[in-house]
Write a structure and sequence with these properties.
alpha+beta, three-stranded antiparallel beta sheet, about 45% helix
Length: about 80
């Protein structure tokens, strides 16, 4: 990937709601309610993301991606010597 492509990924991540994002699945993480992704931390929450229909694995992936992609891209930029 080029430096420009990597910086574009970071720019998109920076425009998204701040991490961390945490996936909560009904029946796995709690007993009643609907599954959601919590944005922010428990004492400094933003909004919850709810889906009409989504597999738990896909929801977990979306939350994980928001938290990890910026770190991975920063590491690639550093290793390639772009910074």
């Amino acid at each position: 990937m080029t430096e420009s492509e990597l910086k574009n990924i970071i720019e998109i991540c920076n425009k998204a709601t701040q991490s961390p994002w945490t996936s909560y699945i009904e029946g796995r993480d709690f007993d009643a309610g609907s599954s959601f992704i919590m944005t922010g931390e428990k004492n400094n929450r933003d909004y919850d993301i709810e889906f009409i229909s989504i597999k738990p694995e896909d929801q977990d992936f979306i939350a994980m991606a928001r938290n990890i992609i910026p770190l991975l891209v920063d590491e690639i930029i550093k290793l390639k010597g772009y910074k």
